[in-house]
Amino acid sequence: GLGAVLLLGGGVGGWASVTEIAGAVIAPGTLVVDSHVKNVQHATGGVIAEIDARDGDKVKAGDLLLRLDRTVPAANLAVVSRALDQLTARKARLDSERRGSDAIIFPNELLDRVADPDVAEAVAGEKQHFETRRTSR
Known about the structure:
The chain is mainly alpha-helical and about 140 residues long. It has a domain at about 80-135. Helix content is about 50%, strand content about 5%. It contains four helices and two strands; from the N terminus they run αββααα. It has a two-stranded antiparallel sheet with strand order 1-2. Helix 2 (about 70-100) runs parallel beside helix 4.
């Protein structure tokens, strides 16, 4: 097996070293794209709300081709934001309990948005939880 491979490699190498190339074929040519259609793919996907380009339109880099519906991402953002607000309020309560404070010290970024009903609910819930745990000690 190995001997055959070495013999073949040596034979091809020997032939290549003694063979002369008499010339080359040179031919002019151009490379043309079969079609100027390009596939467009969004990194995360979504629901298309509006298509601004039509078949056959010539577009250039930066042209708006379509708009994605923002309903699902906005709903997801609201869910994640609410969870973050609740966890921020809980962390403030737990930090205050650990320090033995008489009141919860909420971060300013939460207090600045206390007019938001979700934030107000998170703050009120943690205050109630804090008072219940403080009086039971």
